[in-house]
Design a protein that fits this description.
Layout lengths: L7 E6 L12 H18 L3 E6 L1 H4 L4 H4 L4 E5 L9 H4 L6 E7 L1 H14 L3 E10 L3 H14 L2 E3 L1 H9 L7 H9 L16
Parallel strand pairs: 1-2, 1-4, 2-3, 4-5, 5-6
Helix pairs in contact: 1-7, 1-8, 5-6
InterPro entries: Isochorismatase-like_dom (IPR000868), Isochorismatase-like_sf (IPR036380), Isochorismatase_domain (IPR050993)
Protein name: Isochorismatase
Organism: Cupriavidus malaysiensis
Protein backbone atom coordinates (compact mmCIF):
# COMPACT_ATOMS: atom_id res chain seq x y z
CA UNK A 1 0.00 0.00 0.00
CA UNK A 2 1.47 3.31 -1.11
CA UNK A 3 0.51 6.59 0.50
CA UNK A 4 -1.68 8.81 -1.66
CA UNK A 5 -1.57 12.58 -1.12
CA UNK A 6 -5.25 12.86 -2.07
CA UNK A 7 -6.21 10.47 0.75
CA UNK A 8 -3.80 11.71 3.46
CA UNK A 9 -3.97 14.00 6.47
CA UNK A 10 -0.87 14.90 8.50
CA UNK A 11 -1.31 15.27 12.28
CA UNK A 12 1.59 16.82 14.20
CA UNK A 13 1.24 16.04 17.90
CA UNK A 14 2.43 18.41 20.63
CA UNK A 15 5.59 19.94 19.17
CA UNK A 16 5.56 22.52 21.95
CA UNK A 17 8.51 24.81 22.58
CA UNK A 18 8.66 23.96 26.30
CA UNK A 19 8.57 20.22 25.66
CA UNK A 20 11.05 19.85 22.80
CA UNK A 21 14.32 20.51 24.70
CA UNK A 22 13.63 17.39 26.81
CA UNK A 23 13.02 15.16 23.78
CA UNK A 24 15.81 12.83 22.68
CA UNK A 25 16.94 14.06 19.23
CA UNK A 26 14.27 16.78 19.50
CA UNK A 27 15.81 18.96 16.78
CA UNK A 28 15.69 16.04 14.34
CA UNK A 29 12.05 15.30 15.23
CA UNK A 30 11.09 18.93 14.57
CA UNK A 31 13.15 19.06 11.36
CA UNK A 32 11.47 15.93 9.99
CA UNK A 33 7.97 17.11 10.97
CA UNK A 34 8.54 20.49 9.33
CA UNK A 35 10.06 18.85 6.27
CA UNK A 36 7.02 16.64 5.63
CA UNK A 37 4.53 19.37 6.59
CA UNK A 38 6.15 21.69 4.04
CA UNK A 39 5.81 19.06 1.33
CA UNK A 40 2.26 18.26 2.48
CA UNK A 41 1.26 21.91 2.11
CA UNK A 42 2.67 22.01 -1.40
CA UNK A 43 0.73 18.85 -2.35
CA UNK A 44 -2.56 19.92 -0.78
CA UNK A 45 -2.42 17.50 2.17
CA UNK A 46 -4.16 19.01 5.24
CA UNK A 47 -1.88 19.56 8.23
CA UNK A 48 -3.40 19.58 11.73
CA UNK A 49 -1.38 20.39 14.85
CA UNK A 50 -2.25 19.50 18.43
CA UNK A 51 -1.11 21.20 21.62
CA UNK A 52 -1.30 19.47 25.01
CA UNK A 53 -2.74 21.82 27.66
CA UNK A 54 -1.28 24.94 25.99
CA UNK A 55 -2.27 27.10 28.97
CA UNK A 56 0.32 25.19 31.00
CA UNK A 57 2.79 23.88 28.41
CA UNK A 58 2.69 26.75 25.92
CA UNK A 59 2.27 26.78 22.18
CA UNK A 60 3.81 24.70 19.43
CA UNK A 61 7.03 25.92 17.85
CA UNK A 62 6.42 28.82 15.45
CA UNK A 63 7.69 26.87 12.42
CA UNK A 64 5.18 24.12 13.16
CA UNK A 65 2.24 26.47 13.74
CA UNK A 66 3.02 28.27 10.47
CA UNK A 67 2.49 25.04 8.53
CA UNK A 68 -0.72 23.90 10.21
CA UNK A 69 -4.11 24.52 8.64
CA UNK A 70 -5.45 24.33 12.18
CA UNK A 71 -4.01 23.84 15.64
CA UNK A 72 -6.17 21.88 18.04
CA UNK A 73 -5.85 22.40 21.83
CA UNK A 74 -6.44 19.33 23.99
CA UNK A 75 -6.18 18.12 27.55
CA UNK A 76 -6.60 14.38 26.91
CA UNK A 77 -3.52 12.47 25.83
CA UNK A 78 -5.66 10.93 23.06
CA UNK A 79 -6.61 13.91 20.89
CA UNK A 80 -9.62 11.93 19.63
CA UNK A 81 -11.13 12.09 23.12
CA UNK A 82 -11.18 15.89 22.79
CA UNK A 83 -12.69 15.92 19.29
CA UNK A 84 -9.81 15.49 16.80
CA UNK A 85 -11.75 12.99 14.70
CA UNK A 86 -14.58 15.48 14.23
CA UNK A 87 -12.30 18.05 12.58
CA UNK A 88 -10.50 15.63 10.23
CA UNK A 89 -11.81 15.55 6.65
CA UNK A 90 -14.06 12.49 6.34
CA UNK A 91 -13.04 11.99 2.70
CA UNK A 92 -9.43 11.27 3.67
CA UNK A 93 -8.85 7.91 5.37
CA UNK A 94 -5.06 7.83 5.92
CA UNK A 95 -3.83 9.82 8.93
CA UNK A 96 -0.07 10.23 9.14
CA UNK A 97 0.98 10.91 12.73
CA UNK A 98 4.20 12.40 14.09
CA UNK A 99 5.30 14.39 17.11
CA UNK A 100 5.78 13.93 20.85
CA UNK A 101 5.83 12.04 23.06
CA UNK A 102 5.75 8.76 21.17
CA UNK A 103 4.70 6.67 24.16
CA UNK A 104 2.04 9.06 25.49
CA UNK A 105 0.13 11.47 23.23
CA UNK A 106 1.29 10.05 19.90
CA UNK A 107 0.52 6.48 21.01
CA UNK A 108 -2.87 7.28 22.50
CA UNK A 109 -3.91 9.53 19.59
CA UNK A 110 -2.88 6.92 17.01
CA UNK A 111 -4.76 4.20 18.92
CA UNK A 112 -7.78 6.52 19.10
CA UNK A 113 -7.65 7.10 15.34
CA UNK A 114 -7.44 3.35 14.71
CA UNK A 115 -10.42 2.88 17.03
CA UNK A 116 -12.38 5.39 14.93
CA UNK A 117 -11.71 3.38 11.76
CA UNK A 118 -8.89 5.51 10.35
CA UNK A 119 -5.83 4.06 8.65
CA UNK A 120 -2.77 5.29 10.56
CA UNK A 121 0.85 5.71 9.55
CA UNK A 122 3.42 6.46 12.26
CA UNK A 123 6.43 8.49 11.14
CA UNK A 124 9.17 6.77 13.10
CA UNK A 125 11.84 9.40 12.33
CA UNK A 126 9.51 12.32 13.11
CA UNK A 127 8.32 11.02 16.48
CA UNK A 128 10.18 11.44 19.75
CA UNK A 129 10.28 10.67 23.45
CA UNK A 130 12.66 11.54 26.25
CA UNK A 131 13.99 7.96 26.33
CA UNK A 132 14.80 5.61 23.45
CA UNK A 133 13.04 2.65 25.09
CA UNK A 134 9.77 4.60 25.27
CA UNK A 135 10.02 5.59 21.59
CA UNK A 136 10.91 2.10 20.43
CA UNK A 137 8.23 0.42 22.52
CA UNK A 138 5.57 2.84 21.24
CA UNK A 139 6.58 2.11 17.63
CA UNK A 140 6.37 -1.64 18.23
CA UNK A 141 3.06 -1.39 20.05
CA UNK A 142 1.47 0.77 17.34
CA UNK A 143 2.72 -1.53 14.58
CA UNK A 144 1.17 -4.50 16.43
CA UNK A 145 -2.09 -2.54 16.71
CA UNK A 146 -2.23 -1.95 12.95
CA UNK A 147 -0.43 1.37 12.43
CA UNK A 148 1.96 1.37 9.48
CA UNK A 149 5.50 2.46 10.42
CA UNK A 150 7.18 4.70 7.83
CA UNK A 151 9.73 7.48 7.46
CA UNK A 152 9.34 11.02 6.19
CA UNK A 153 11.12 10.20 2.93
CA UNK A 154 9.00 7.10 2.32
CA UNK A 155 5.79 9.09 2.60
CA UNK A 156 7.08 12.07 0.60
CA UNK A 157 8.25 9.95 -2.32
CA UNK A 158 5.03 7.89 -2.26
CA UNK A 159 2.98 11.09 -2.40
CA UNK A 160 5.02 12.22 -5.41
CA UNK A 161 5.00 8.81 -7.17
CA UNK A 162 7.33 10.02 -9.95
CA UNK A 163 10.19 12.38 -10.73
CA UNK A 164 7.77 13.84 -13.28
CA UNK A 165 5.42 15.14 -10.57
CA UNK A 166 5.03 18.92 -10.95
CA UNK A 167 6.31 19.49 -7.39
CA UNK A 168 9.12 16.91 -7.45
CA UNK A 169 12.03 19.36 -7.59
CA UNK A 170 10.60 21.54 -4.83
CA UNK A 171 9.91 18.50 -2.63
CA UNK A 172 13.37 17.10 -3.30
CA UNK A 173 14.91 20.40 -2.22
CA UNK A 174 13.10 20.11 1.12
CA UNK A 175 13.96 16.44 1.53
CA UNK A 176 17.66 17.20 1.06
CA UNK A 177 17.70 20.40 3.14
CA UNK A 178 19.19 19.88 6.61
CA UNK A 179 18.13 23.32 7.89
CA UNK A 180 14.44 23.48 6.99
CA UNK A 181 13.39 22.75 10.57
CA UNK A 182 14.61 26.18 11.59
CA UNK A 183 13.31 28.29 8.71
CA UNK A 184 11.47 31.48 9.57
CA UNK A 185 7.69 31.08 9.24
CA UNK A 186 7.58 33.68 6.44
CA UNK A 187 10.11 31.64 4.44
CA UNK A 188 7.93 28.53 4.30
CA UNK A 189 6.19 27.85 1.00
CA UNK A 190 2.40 27.76 0.79
CA UNK A 191 0.38 25.82 -1.76
CA UNK A 192 -0.36 27.71 -4.94
Amino acid sequence: MLHDAADSILVLVDLQARLMPAIRHGEQVVRECVRLATIARRLGVPVIGTEQSPGSLGANLAEVTALCDRTFAKDSFDACADGLCEILPATRRRVIVAGCEAHVCVLQTALGLLGHGREVTLLVDATGSRKAIDHDTAVARLAAAGALPATVEMVAFEWLRSARHEHFRDALRHIKSPAIGHAAPGDLPRPD
